Amino acid sequence: MKVCDLVEKLNLTVFCGEQGINNEVEGAYTSDLLSDVMGNVDEGQVWITLQTHRNIMAIASLKEVAAIILVKGYKPEQAAIDQSNEEGIPILGTDMETFEASGVLFTLLNEEKGKYGAF
Amino acid sequence: MEFVYEVEGGDFTKAGNASSAVKKTLKQLNVSPKIVKRIVVALYEAEVNIVAHAYKGTISVNINQDQIHIVLDDVGPGIPDIDLAMQEGYSTASSKVREMGFGAGMGLPNIKKNVDDLKVSSEVDKGTKVEMKTYL
Ligand SMILES: Nc1ncnc2c1ncn2[C@@H]1O[C@H](COP(=O)(O)OP(=O)(O)OP(=O)(O)O)[C@@H](O)[C@H]1O
Ligand SMILES: [Mg+2]
């Protein structure tokens, strides 16, 4: 599954970083604590959060995540947008709350895994 | 080979820049991706600790054939009880810093998990020195 497939299936807003829209998605991690994300998110995962400042992009870039999804209608700050465009790591948005966004994404990624017999 | 970076306390807009530069260098030197990933986590946490808790600091990265040795030396308030600071969940971060999502008290534990050798030394009202070694 690619970032663009998530955008389509979950009807997400693409704020920035469109060059990364074909990034492959390997999974996801949900957290708003930056050290928790730093320690636990893996390369190629989507990061679900409500943090919007530029430091989320520093972490996204260092950890090479596939994309960030901002929940509850939050929008990224300008500095985050700039870095997202530079790095090609998309920042996406949804009106869903964290629980719902994580649940929907979990189901979607699991269906895909089932389809290709990755269990 | 040695590289030195300066870190300014309180300036969150630049937090992570040094870690990012080191990551690039390590990749160019063909250090294994697994090791680069671990060092990046440890170094970012130590860099942000200078930004969040100290006034200014330097990061020096020493790379030779069998190890990567990174020393972060800051001028700042120091850590009165290092064992306590090392505990997961312990944090003195301000509410402003917490709102940004820092201050979970997971930085030092993250460092510990991701390097082979960690030494933290500190003098109250002077500063803190974090030394980490990764064997190649
Ligand atoms: N360079 C430093 N100078 C002064 N105090 C420090 C320094 N590094 C860590 N500390 C102290 O140790 C505590 C724990 O550090 P740690 O990195 O584990 O958590 P944190 O920085 O508070 O939160 P997090 O890293 O999860 O965002 C800090 O809250 C602070 O009191
Ligand atoms: Mg910290």
Automatic annotation (TrEMBL), chain A:
Domain of life of the source: Bacteria
All residue ranges annotated as the DRTGG domain in the record: 5-103
InterPro entries to which the protein is assigned, alphabetical: DRTGG, Ser_kin/Pase_Hpr-like_N_sf
SUPFAM superfamilies given in the database record: HprK N-terminal domain-like
Subunit-structure text: Homohexamer.
Protein name: DRTGG domain-containing protein
Record organism: Plebeiibacterium marinum
Automatic annotation (TrEMBL), chain B:
Record field: transmembrane: none
SUPFAM superfamilies given in the database record: ATPase domain of HSP90 chaperone/DNA topoisomerase II/histidine kinase (SSF55874)
Gene3D superfamilies with a match to the protein in the record: Histidine kinase-like ATPase, C-terminal domain
Record domain Histidine kinase/HSP90-like ATPase: where: 16-133
Official protein name in the record: Anti-sigma regulatory factor
Organism: Plebeiibacterium marinum
